[in-house]
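Could you help me review a protein record that somebody else here produced? What it holds is a sequence and that sequence's fold in token form. I need someone to confirm that the token line plausibly describes how this chain folds. Take the sequence as given and treat only the tokens as open to question. This is what I was given:
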Amino acid sequence: MRHGKVFSVYSDLRTRKSSLFFLILGLILLVLTLLQYAFNIFSAKGDLAGILTALTMLCFGACAILYFFSRMFGKLAEIASEVENDESLRDDSTEEDSSKGNS
């Protein structure tokens, strides 16, 4: 029986790089939006300033969500390493019980 792909708890699925990408893209769009409002650089038909504002907010929102996921993956990795190294969670008692039963 084949199972799906297993992800490591130490992998953050590139959320940190993706959040940085959306932050940079959002800052570029913010500068374009401010230039559009200040100097009306793009004299195209339609509401280009509104579109730029909406895209800027979407990029910053995606950045915030991906940064949150990145932080949660980091905390998950800390918890996983604590569980791996915790001596009180070792299953030594069952090994002793099975060795007593075999004698």
Summary: The chain has a mean pLDDT of 81. The two ends are 37 Å apart (CA to CA).
